[in-house]
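Suppose a colleague, Dr. K., hands you the sequence of a protein chain of 479 amino acids and asks what its three-dimensional shape might be. Before reaching for any lab equipment, you can write down a predicted structure in token form. Begin with the sequence itself:
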Amino acid sequence: MDPKLGISTQTLVSASGQQKGAKLPQYVAAISVTLGAFALGNVLAWTSPTQGELEGTLGTSDWSWVGALMALGAAVAVIPIGYLIDRIGRKYTMLGLVLPFTAGWALIAWAEDSAPMYMVGRFITGMMGGAFSLTAPVYTSEISEKEIRGTLGSYFQLMVTIGILFVYGLGSVLSVFTLSVVCGVVPLVFGAAFIFMPETPLYYLQKGKKDDAQASLQWFRGRNYDVGAELQEIQTSVDEAAAQRLSITQAFRTTEAKKGLMVAFGLMIFQQLSGVNAVIFYTTDIFRSAGSTLEASTATIIVGVIQAITTFISTLVVDRLGRRILLLISDFVMAICTLLLGVFFYLKDETTDDVSDLGWLPLTSVCLFIVVFSLGYGPIPWMMVGELFAPQIKGFASSFSCVLNWILAFIVTKFYSDLADSFGSYTTFWIFAVISGIGTVFVFFLVPETKGKTLDEIQKELGGSAPATSVANAESPKD
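The predicted structure, expressed as tokens, is then:
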């Protein structure tokens, strides 16, 4: 969806009884654009296989900054990227990320023992990866038909998990230098694949390029599909939005805007504070506590495989079961898992009880946690941010939601170890359990179901009274 207009082409034709478009071109485009998510997964996972070699060389303090600066870079990138995709287009904004992404990996690869070079490289790669967290979902939602919007939208998180698994696997056999070089090639592969994809028809119509919009929509829907009616619907929506304008302050005062922000921010908060980073951080310790003799690298690969497989399953069921039920199951089970992990670590660290017979408990808890996170709270918050907002606030609200997510990721990554050292790992797991319990209540009472609904229907459910496509487009601060 367009960050400002928010009109998604999948909302326009199916209700009118016309023929459905071809699905294959949409799948091809979605996979191509989410190669950027694969690259983001590489950035997220890089610190895991390299920690053993680099933490001793750089020192614990510098290493913590190397890990955390990635999320800070992502937070910094989101707002300007939201502006660029509306000015130069979704396609060229993403293609413009390729060379800086590769340059960031080059700094990391040739940093040797230089902590500042590692930090700068991580900040740059974090910026580029974070930019994809906004641009790829926007592009996917604008090219997708309603029937497969959820499936294609969940490809983003799926490719992130595959990118993580890719680095876990290679990191177990490659040096830091070689691994970094391989990761630096991935953005180039994205550029080579995505350069052949069209710009979205909605963006072309916003710029007055109707012929280009028609050609783009024809590519996404197939050569035998009559795009005339759908193209006219999109053009009408663009014209209506351009005819009226509201200040951004007025746009944010509506009931649906306030509730949409509350839902989006809540989903991002409960995703990052669910304890997923702590569970992954403790994976090796948990496997050892369960009596496993697996190498640390093998344990992380197992977790990566579980994430990737379960996220793939999510892509198959999200348009059938719906968003709400997956979020509810995810948060409730995560609360139980982190509660049990807290109990285990309390018995292990604070009592003299023999916990060897309870080795199955942490192992089961962490595997189940990863499964339900990957089914619900992993992919769905990113997907729903593109569905919740009306045209006049979509750009700002989506960007702010992404910024909040990455800032929380930075805080958790940078200060989690300090919290665990001060209060005990069991206390932190219990805190995560309480947060996930609150998140379950939040989803039950406040999060709407968006499966199979148009933008207008979602806005009405959030409290709006007027059709979303007839609401004015907001002025940006620069207008």
